[in-house]
Amino acid sequence: MFKSPIELSDIEPKALRDLFIYWNKIRGEKSMPSRKDFRPSDVPRLLPHIVMVDVEQDSGRYLTRLVGTETVKAMGIDLTGRYVNDVPQMSVVLERYQWIVENKTPYIYTGQLAWSEKSYLEYFALGLPLSDDDKRVDIIMWGLVYYFPSEQRTRFPIE
Question: Which residue among 5, 9, 13, 147 is the one 20 to 30 A from 58 at the CA level?
């Protein structure tokens, strides 16, 4: 599921609701906050859920600046310092990156982690643009929560 514009009530995981509230707070009257507005010390419990990606406007490439521990655990690899463009099976994800760059507004996405070895996981992604000049997106800040899909439990009779 992809949705934009979003409201707080659209965001299920508490960590991502809190990140969205914080993003709006530091945004103030601007359309997008800047990287210097973001202070990790303001949201220490959210850091494991955050991924920061630099947007290279001229090349159209996306450099992973920081990967939170929750994403490292879910993916089984730390992509810090790597270009997202160079990671196999990420073309669908790159389309979402480009959408944020073009639209300069947050969105949410819920789906299956189909581009990972752990495709049995589902995830909730909150994409938040950051901009130094309030005109172009310089960094995409992702809030990510991973979970096992809900499934119907079978009760076994105990004799």
Answer: 5
